[in-house]
Structures are given as structure tokens and as C-alpha cells.
């Protein structure tokens, strides 16, 4: 509990002035958490039932519709990005890349908790990112020693995959929530 309180404090000081008053920050955190939970529930069930190869297939089919549904509910574009990505649709733009690099640097320097970033732009649009850290269970599909049948399935679905070679504790990527300028439709 104490640790969580400290974590919350660290997050507060890392955010720009005024960000705490923007309800899109809270809604971004909620949407990121929902996407994370739905994806890991889908993944864990699939791995447990049919193994990692089937889980890759399911991720390939289900990851975008899950993100699309949560985006529609939130009124924002809710997804994931990474410096080294598996799905090219998740490639970061230059700004997201810069934020991912600070996340990576902070994480390597031992920053706890994992970082988050919130910015508003002059047109009223806003962007939220929060770091996704690699855990032991992710290594089956993102680690350095991938089983041959898993590697084959990844190569089949993602021929340009860059998302292996991670270790537990590394930055894997980030949730990325984009809020359109008021009055314009969500992207
Ligand atoms: C069963 C294999 C499997 C496991 C285990 C797995 N992933 Fe993935 N991961 C994938 C696949 C497949 C994709 C591409 C999904 C898509 O098409 O959008 C992916 C994509 C991602 C992305 C989006 C960025 C990118 O590279 O395209 C992140 C972030 C990510 N995974 C994090 C994790 C984390 C964190 C864990 C552990 C909690 C994890 N993954 C466990 C297969 C897996």
C-alpha cells in the first residue's frame, strides 16, 4: 500500500502542470488498463487452452478488434506501440518514439513505477502513453529463446517482426491513447 502511494506521487511529479485537472488523463489510464487486461486475459486463456502457437494466431486476429472496441467506447484511439514492434500497424511516430526512448532510459536507470506521459496540444488534442514492461511470461513470444514452432508461427504472421530478444524487466512498449481535438472525430 505504502509503495502504491509512493508510486502515485512519482507519477504526479512526472506530469506537466494542469494535467491532473484534465479528465482525459484518468480516462486514458482506464482505457489503457482495460486494453491491457482484455489482451492478457485473451492471451492467458489461449495459451492455457491451446498453447502459444494458437495464442499467436488469436492475437493476430483479436488484438485489433479488441483495441477498436475499446477505442469506440472511450472516444479516443486506444492502442499499443513499441520501438521494436511485431505488428507494423503499431509503429511509433517520431513523438511516440522520443517518449518510448525516455521510458527505456528511465527504466534502465531503475525508475519505479513504470513511466507515463500526457501532453495536450494547442488544438486541444491530447496524447497519453504508459510504459509496458516485459514480464517472464512474455518471453515465450518476445524473449531470446523462442521455441521453433512459436518462431515459425510468428514468422508466418509477422514476416518483419522486430519484437524478440527482450528480457524480463525491459521496456516492451507502451499503451498509446490519442484524443482528437474537441469537435473532430476520433482517429
Ligand atoms: C503467445 C505469444 C505472445 C505472448 C506470450 C505475448 N505476446 Fe505480445 N504480441 C504477440 C503478438 C502475436 C503480437 C502482435 C499483435 C498484433 O497483431 O497486434 C504482440 C504484440 C505486442 C505488443 C504491441 C507492439 C508490437 O510489438 O506490435 C506489445 C506491447 C506486447 N505484445 C507486449 C507483450 C507483453 C508485455 C507480454 C507479456 C505480458 C506479451 N506481449 C506476451 C504475441 C505474444
List keywords for this structure.
single chain, 187 residues, alpha+beta, 6 helices, 4 strands, 14% strand, globular, binds heme C
How would you sum up this structure, described in words?
This protein has 187 residues and is an alpha+beta fold. Helix 2 (23-50) packs antiparallel against helix 3 (52-74) and helix 3 packs across helix 6. It starts with a helix and ends in an 8-residue tail after the last strand. Mean pLDDT is 89; it is low at 1-13. The chain has one domain (21-179). It contains six helices and four strands. Heme C binds at residues 40, 43, 47, 52, 55-56, 59-60, 63, 80, 82, 85-87, 90, 132, 134-135, 137-138, 140-142, 163, 172-173.
Could you list the spans in which at least 5 consecutive residues all have pLDDT below 50? 1-13
Q: Which strands sit side by side, in order, in the main sheet? A: 1-4-3-2
Specify the biggest β-sheet: 4 strands, antiparallel
- Rg is 17 Å
In whole angstroms, the N-to-C terminal distance is 38 Å
What number of domains? Answer: 1
Hetero ligands? heme C
Helical content, roughly?
40-55%
Summarize the structure.
With 187 residues, the protein is an alpha+beta fold.
Describe the SSE topology.
Elements: H1 2-14, H2 23-50, H3 52-74, E1 77-81, H4 94-108, E2 116-120, E3 126-133, H5 139-142, H6 148-157, E4 171-179
Antiparallel strand pairs: 1-4, 2-3, 3-4
The structure holds heme C.
Amino acid at each position: 500500500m505504502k509503495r502504491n502511494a509512493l508510486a502515485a506521487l512519482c507519477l504526479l511529479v512526472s506530469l506537466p502542470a494542469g494535467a491532473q485537472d484534465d479528465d482525459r488523463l484518468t480516462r486514458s489510464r482506464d482505457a489503457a488498463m482495460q486494453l491491457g487486461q482484455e489482451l492478457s486475459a485473451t492471451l492467458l486463456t489461449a495459451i492455457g487452452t491451446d498453447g502459444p502457437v494458437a495464442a499467436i494466431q488469436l492475437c493476430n486476429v483479436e488484438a485489433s478488434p479488441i483495441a477498436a472496441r475499446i477505442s469506440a467506447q472511450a472516444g479516443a484511439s486506444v492502442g499499443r506501440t513499441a520501438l521494436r514492434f511485431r505488428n507494423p500497424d503499431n509503429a511509433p511516430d517520431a513523438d511516440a518514439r522520443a517518449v518510448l526512448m525516455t521510458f527505456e532510459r528511465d527504466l534502465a536507470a531503475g525508475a519505479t513505477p513504470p513511466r507515463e506521459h500526457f501532453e495536450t496540444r494547442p488544438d486541444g488534442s491530447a496524447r497519453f502513453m504508459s510504459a509496458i514492461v516485459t514480464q517472464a511470461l512474455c518471453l515465450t513470444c518476445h524473449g531470446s529463446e523462442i521455441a521453433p514452432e512459436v518462431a515459425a508461427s510468428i514468422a508466418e504472421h509477422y514476416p518483419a517482426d522486430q519484437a524478440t530478444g527482450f528480457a524480463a524487466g525491459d521496456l516492451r512498449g507502451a499503451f498509446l491513447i490519442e484524443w482528437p481535438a474537441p469537435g473532430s472525430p476520433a482517429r
